[in-house]
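Researcher: I'm preparing a figure for a lab meeting and need a structural model of a single chain. I don't have an experimental structure, so a prediction will have to do for now. The sequence is pasted below. Please return the structure as tokens so I can convert it later.
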Amino acid sequence: MIKKSKRDMAYEIDVDVSTLYNWRKHKPNLYRIVMLGFKFDELLEKQKKDYEELLHMEQQIQEEISKFNKD
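Model: Understood. Here is the structure written out token by token.
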């Protein structure tokens, strides 16, 4: 997964990039919360991909087991 730039983050929440820098300097708690939100989204997306990969692996294993049981 590609890490988002500050420009991408600003665009996503519909603010100017300079707003993010101002929040970081003058409103550090707000900035921290916004960054944690982006981190949460990133981790959630990773978990979804991992889950889909596990489902695919499970399917492959079940197929191999069914082949083995037919013999």
